Amino acid sequence: MSMTIVGPDGKLRCQWCSAAPEFLDYHDNEWGFPVSDDHRLFEKLSLESFQSGLSWRTILVKRENFRAAFHDFDFDRIARFTQHDIDRLLKDEGIVRHRGKIEAVINNAQRAQELVKREGSLAAFIWRYEPDKEKLAKPRSVSTSAESMALSKDLKKQGWKFVGPTTVYAFMQAMGLINDHVEDCVVRANVERVRKNFRRPGR
Q1: Which residue, 70, 118, 188, 203, shows the most beta carbons closer than 10 Å to its own?
Q2: Separation of first and last alpha carbons in the chain
Q3: Is 25 inside any structural domain?
Q4: Is 181 within any annotated ligand binding site?
Q5: Residue numbers of the domain that contains 86
Q6: Is 68 a domain residue?
Q7: DSSP single-letter state for residue 6
Q8: Is 26 in the active site?
Q9: Is 114 assigned a catalytic role?
Q10: Are 52 and 90 in contact (CB under 8 A)?
Q11: Is 8 a domain residue?
């Protein structure tokens, strides 16, 4: 089975990006490119937790609604959310209305604040779990890794919720800690160039 599809420009891309119309732009311009912004990292961890049991398309098409509902994933603001905010979010048809996941984001925002006080930034902590270069050489069809299991375990130990190894691995793929674009994908080389020049936080 082919791991690639031919894109609208005639160039090869990862096969998964043909599964929904919204995926092509996300694949070409976001997925796999390294991110060091704390709010974007927190957003992605939160959205991946909302995705649990659902498709990424469901979350992606609602992403702007999530951003509005959660103040662009500013965890300092989310950490102050009260029962009133939970009630508001449970009535918001633009997002996934799951009490446990909403409460997890608020909890995780508070844990993120603690982590930033301790480590300086969320990015500095997360990027410690970047796999070594040998492991980045070839993309693999897997849903976890030793690093995602380690990061998941560490976050859970600190009190984070909805951050299992599969959720964390998808987060690491998307935020550029791993380049899992397939070998023939036209975007893989672009990601590799950006990764090469990317300044790792905390180093």
Answers
A1: 70
A2: 41
A3: no
A4: yes
A5: 34-179
A6: yes
A7: E
A8: yes
A9: no
A10: no
A11: no
